[in-house]
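stage 2 :: seqdesign
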């Protein structure tokens, strides 16, 4: 992820503002706020400005995913070229559903909040939608998860831990 974030920082950073790059990266699946904070650090964006940009960018797609992903998957599943991709994404998300067994809300929040490969708000939203988690409950759990991930990644990306020691 760091190399992908660095690519966005060096490539897009030439053409648009650093804050816009941070926002765009935070919107993207896989990278999300984790990548946005890495990019912000690489581009020298102040942490106080980077955090709200990353949180907003990461949270913005969540309601749309929760509301529309099942309909989109149903539609894409009707076509042979995309049927396998949809099935793979659904199976991948459902294989990660163990995180929700300890309680939907806490499980979803921790799934989104602990920055591990394959977790995050996009996958959490897909999982919540496929498991029919209540929309409002999923939004709050994912927002809190994004906040947790942001705190963790801020410490790692900006080296705040080194400054505290």
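stage 2 :: out
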């Amino acid at each position: 992820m760091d190399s992908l974030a660095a690519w966005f920082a060096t490539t897009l950073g030439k053409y648009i503002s650093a804050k816009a790059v941070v926002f765009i990266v935070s919107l993207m699946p896989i990278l999300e706020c984790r990548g946005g904070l890495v990019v912000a650090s690489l581009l020298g964006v102040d942490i106080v400005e980077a955090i709200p940009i990353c949180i907003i960018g990461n949270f913005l797609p969540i309601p749309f995913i929760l509301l529309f992903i099942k309909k989109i998957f149903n539609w894409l599943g009707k076509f042979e070229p995309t049927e396998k991709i949809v099935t793979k994404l659904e199976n991948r998300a459902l294989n990660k559903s163990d995180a929700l067994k300890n309680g939907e809300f806490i499980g979803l929040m921790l799934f989104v909040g602990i920055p591990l490969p394959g977790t995050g708000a996009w996958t959490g939203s897909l999982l919540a939608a496929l498991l029919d988690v209540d929309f409002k409950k999923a939004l709050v759990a994912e927002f809190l998860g994004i906040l947790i991930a942001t705190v963790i990644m801020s410490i790692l990306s900006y080296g705040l831990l080194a400054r505290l020691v």
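stage 3 :: structure notes
- Residues 139 and 160 are 29 Å apart (CA to CA).
- DSSP finds ten helices and no strands in the chain.
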